[in-house]
Fold:
Amino acid sequence: MKILLTNDDGVGAPGLVALEGILAGEAVVIAPDRHLSGCSHAVTTWQGSIRAEQRGPKLWAIEGTPADCVRLGLDSLAADVDLVIAGINPGGNLGADIYYSGTVAAAREAAFHGKTGIAVSHYRKREMDFDWPRAAAWTRRVLDELLKREPPSRAFWNVNLPHLAAAEADPEIVFCGPCKQPLPLRYRVQGEHFQYEGDYQSRPADPGADVALCFGGKITVSLIAL
Structure:
């Protein structure tokens, strides 16, 4: 299987490096040349050209968005890939985040073109660091499970890893729908400026959906239709 690997945190981001490691050289990395978290599904069309810098035999840094990376890959740089994986994003992409996330947009763009798309994100608890080798091992388990299944038609997979203490047992993988609750609305007013202060970790959560389950320590997998 030929794999295109991307993210919205840029070439060299630790989650991308961890994901590349478990794929053992199987993937072509086509990722933004800078951090673009929260760029959603923006693409470059009439606005101008996109610079693509080759930094290795299977590594491209793109002056564009995650969706641009997938589009360039499927058209020119890795046209024969079967699978697009985006991640591992440092922070959850749960529920409403699906619409804001550049990581998720890359998987969605793959699905638009009939390819299997998988977005992988890692929820983070306050004052805890990521354990990227452990996250990569969990991701390997999820990929092994998903790639045994029939490729989704007109849909893609959205995966979120929980944040567990080192002493906690490895999490269960659960398949569920995305939460339909909004992100908290709270801004601090500073003259003409508004600073967002919504508390991500206290966001409302539908029982049995991805936010509640991932916050509760499960690996959540959601099939998202186009």
Observations:
- The chain has a mean pLDDT of 95.
- Helices lie at 14-22, 66-77, 97-100, 102-112, 132-146, 210-215.
- Residues 3-177+217-225 form a domain with the Stationary-phase Survival Protein Sure Homolog; Chain: A, fold (CATH 3.40.1210.10).
